[in-house]
Structure formats: C-alpha cells, structure tokens
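User: Predict structure, ligand pyridoxal-5'-phosphate.
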Amino acid sequence: MFNTIAQEIPLQRIDFYGRELWIKRLDLVHPHISGNKFYKLKYNFLAAQAQGYQHVLTFGGAYSNHIAATAFAAQLFGWKSTAIIRGEELAERPYNSTLALAHEMGMQFRFVSREMYRQKNHPEFLQFLQHEYPDAYILPEGGTNAFAIQGCQEILNADDLHQFNLICCAVGTGGTLTGLIEASHPNQQILGFSALKGDFLTQELQQLTSKKNWQITDEFCCGGYAKTTPELLAFIRAFEKEHAIPLEQIYTGKMLFGLSHMIQRGEFNTGEHILIIHSGGLQGRHIAPA
Ligand SMILES: *Cc1c(COP(=O)(O)O)cnc(C)c1O
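Assistant: Predicted complex:
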C-alpha cells in the first residue's frame, strides 16, 4: 500500500485570528496509519520488505501514535509486530485503547521499566533485542531514522514549495520536521512547535540537517510531553467547534495554540503565507467535553 502514491492531500483554508491559514490534512491520509506516521513508515517498510523481513519491532509509550500505526502497517503487510512499551506496571492492567487496537492487529508487547526503556538507542540493548528477536526489523522510537526523513520529504509537493513562506509542524522526535526542512525551499521558514520541554531537539536537529531556515520553540509545550492546561483544552474545543477539524492534546493542539499566541502577538508579517501540517494522531485524542 505504500507503493501507491498517497492521494493528493487536501489543503483546507481557515480564518484564524484575522489570518488565512492553509492546513494540510495528513490526518486524512489513511484511517489508521495516520498523518506523519504514514510517511515515516513508508520507506522503512519498503526497505525491510526488500530485505525479506516479515517482522517489525519498535518502541513507544502506551498511547503512542507510532505504535498504533506500526501495528496496522504490519498487519497490512502480513508481518508480525512487536513493541517494547515503556512502563512495566502496564503488564498487569487492562490495555488502553491504543494498545487494545494494536493488539487486535496482532502486535505483541513487551513491557519494560522506564529505566530499561531509556536504553532504547544504546547499541548493547539493541543487540540484546536483535538476539531475542533475530527475525525482526528494528525501528527506533517514533520511527525516526533516515528512511523516515526521506518519507517526510514527500509531505510537501511542488505547489507547497512555491506558495508558502512559513510552514508549521508539531515536533516530537523531530523526524518529520527534518523531512520538511530537507524538502523546503531556502526562502521558506520551517517552524516546529515542540511537544516536549527543553532545547535538546534544536541540537539534535542540527546534527540531522545543515540547513538554517528553521526554528523550534518549546514555549507552548504546556509544561512537557502529554501535559495539558485548561487553556490548551479550551482552545482545542473552541477550534474544533469553529473549524470542524479535529485536533489532539499532545501535538497538533499545542501547535495551533502556540500559533494563535504568536499571531496575536503580531509575530508574522501580513504578507506571509502560512501552511500548517496537520500530522494526525487522532487515535490518541483524549479531551473530555467542557
Ligand atoms: C508522532 C507525532 C508527531 C511527532 O513527529 P516527530 O517526527 O517524532 O517529530 C507530531 N504529530 C503527531 C500527531 C504525531 O503523532
């Protein structure tokens, strides 16, 4: 299914605090392999397939969109899938909606302590896992690697490269943002809204790209990964009601919340044409009605 070109992704125009925004609805790319995860998995699955793999192993938290997407993609390919899930204590509990769905797709879980999970990129730990699962193609957390970046370059088409000066995207590991940066035209600015606290992402991305037309802000992370504030949740509810575009509280909600503040502070020139990447992730939406 990755061989077929993703259909033309709809661009939706909205009025937002007196500005015109164009939203690229990656949430509509595939019902389950949602948003940026479709692009991040594409070349990983194609490369693994070419090498004869029929089993994928990856890492994530219990609500991870990447886990859900990987489970679905593996099922479509007829492969086994295994996930290393952060949090030993979860082994004893009923599955949440993400894990229940992934499990239905045939995914096997291995719940590990936070301490062990932190070793997810260490060569010895990866060697240990490869030894335990000798037939598995190992995908890093969030699916971020060179293949993922290659896939995310396809998010922008030729029109996007000409029509927009500013491209906004939510950031977790930064793989998607790196793809956008690599694909971008030099006179475009790429602005990442981090879902996490801290400026380590800027340093990590500097290792991944030599381009300079980008920036990451963590100002609107609302205290850190998966943290929310009443203001954020109220913003999301109001946005969804006004525009009939669903958001979630971890990534896309924080991006648009941040953008609303920046627009109201007058940070963008009126001539600026703004493209918003809606990176999907709606399976992880947990917003109680007001
Ligand atoms: C995973 C995810 C991101 C973060 O993507 P990275 O490539 O890890 O930065 C952003 N938005 C949504 C909805 C996601 O599911």
